[in-house]
């Protein structure tokens, strides 16, 4: 999978391959610079590479080369981790960094992004799941439909902003990777700060309320609107997990959704 690109772009392997559900990655050296060779295995990753090129290194990793399913990216070599920060007493600062990174990505660019995926299409799995399972999913679906019918502050979105998709690039600061190439209300991009299943504290209502204040202030979002996006996003995440099926992760997402719904009713 990597050999043809190693030859074509004159790359030197610099680590072990990393295999994920949607791509194959290999740390490499390109012109003596640390880089990451990424070969997509699904359509969302291919779309993401186009968005990375469009951002052109502003708020996101630089793209050094791109062809078909393969993209050669600037590699993060910093030691800091937002997930570690969030788990070690710096949750507020980690959330602020995520918000600042998202703001850079949302800034208008002179050239348009061709054919981004609208949020309405991204949410297409939620309503059928709500019809099947009802309960919390039905509440989330109703909120999502209302948000999508009345969008505000439209922007090109990352689509998957969380603690492991914003990395330490040392002198270049914190930069994003692995976007989904979406378009819609910018508030959507802040919901996953509350729903990253790798963070054990996401189901803690006290943590939720504190981060709601931090994120709404840093991002300039009305708390009620942010809560609605958290409920909608968590419902969509739960629908995807139920479809896998991954009941444990679905229940985590539904717990976050219930916390958001409770706060909306308060």
Automatic annotation (TrEMBL):
The protein's UniProt keywords, in alphabetical order, are:
Kinase, Transferase
Do you know which InterPro entries this protein is assigned to? Answer: Kinase-like_dom_sf, NH2Glyco/OHUrea_AB-resist_kin
Q: Which residues form a coiled coil?
A: none
GO MF, one term, reads: phosphotransferase activity, alcohol group as acceptor
Instruction: Quote the SUPFAM superfamilies the UniProt record gives.
Output: Protein kinase-like (PK-like)
Any one Pfam family here would be APH_6_hur
Could you give a single Gene Ontology term from the biological process aspect? secondary metabolic process
Name the record gives this protein? 3'-kinase
């Amino acid at each position: 999978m990597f050999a043809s690109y190693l030859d074509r772009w004159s790359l030197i392997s610099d680590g072990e391959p990393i295999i994920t559900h949607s791509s194959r990655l290999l740390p490499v050296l390109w012109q003596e610079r640390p880089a990451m060779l990424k070969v997509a295995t699904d359509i969302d990753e291919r779309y993401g590479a186009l968005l990375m090129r469009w951002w052109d290194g502003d708020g996101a990793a630089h793209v050094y080369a791109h062809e078909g399913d393969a993209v050669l990216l600037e590699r993060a070599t910093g030691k800091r981790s937002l997930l570690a920060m969030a788990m070690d007493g710096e949750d507020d600062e980690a959330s602020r960094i995520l918000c600042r990174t998202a703001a850079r990505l949302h800034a208008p660019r002179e050239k348009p992004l061709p054919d981004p995926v609208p949020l309405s299409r991204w949410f297409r799995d939620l309503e059928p799941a709500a019809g099947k399972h009802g309960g919390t999913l039905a509440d989330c679906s109703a909120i999502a439909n209302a948000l999508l019918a009345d969008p505000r502050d439209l922007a090109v979105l990352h689509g998957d902003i969380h603690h492991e998709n914003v990395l330490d690039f040392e002198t270049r600061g914190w930069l994003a990777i692995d976007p989904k190439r979406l378009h819609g209300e910018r508030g959507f991009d802040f919901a996953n700060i509350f729903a990253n299943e790798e963070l054990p504290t996401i189901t803690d209502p006290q943590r939720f309320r504190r981060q709601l204040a931090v994120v709404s202030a840093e991002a300039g979002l009305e708390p009620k609107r942010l809560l609605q996006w958290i409920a909608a996003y968590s419902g969509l995440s739960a629908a995807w997990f139920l479809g896998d099926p991954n009941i444990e992760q679905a229940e985590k997402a539904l717990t976050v959704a219930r916390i958001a719904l409770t706060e909306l009713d308060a």
